[in-house]
Amino acid sequence: MAEKQYVIFKLSGEEYGVEINHVQEITEYKKATTVPNVPNFIEGIINLRGNITPIISLKKKFNLVESEIKENNRIIIINLKSKQVGFIVDDASQVLTMDEKHIENPPEILTGIDRQYIIGIGKVDEKIIIMLDLEKILTEEEKEEIKNM
């Protein structure tokens, strides 16, 4: 079995993981400039070292209870079809190495077309970590809309 490294982040008290090789960087939260007529989960855009980067609220995308943005909020930056995209998370402060044997397939209740981004359930001691593929969180139409921002 192979070991992989995951960036562990929190949303509404739950832990999620994403493969570290999908993450370009993690940066401190910056207030986004609102863009009109975009889906409600797109917070807006920021200027990240000269790159205009759309920022997505994972809480809104996942229909989680929103909370006030705090100083420990982070933005996880990934490349999505050659465009930089950021995801706001509550905290992202840990990199964890996990053996694939500790990651199970998602239960049937979590599968389906709108849950294709859940790639597994990681078990570390007594904790459960929901493993995500951030590139699959958006539909093709949403990716196209972001590409054209």
UniProtKB/TrEMBL annotation:
Under InterPro entries, the record lists: CheW (IPR039315), CheW-like_dom_sf (IPR036061), CheW-lke_dom (IPR002545)
Q: Where in the cell is it found?
A: Cytoplasm
Tell me which Pfam families the record gives: CheW (PF01584)
Q: Which PROSITE patterns match?
A: CHEW (PS50851)
Show where the CheW-like domain sits: 3-143
Q: Which domain of life is it from?
A: Bacteria
| Keyword terms, alphabetized | Chemotaxis, Cytoplasm
List this protein's GO terms for biological process: chemotaxis; signal transduction
A cellular component term from Gene Ontology for this protein is:
cytosol
What name does the UniProt record give this protein?
Chemotaxis protein CheW
Instruction: Provide the taxonomic classification.
Output: Bacteria, Bacillati, Bacillota, Clostridia, Peptostreptococcales
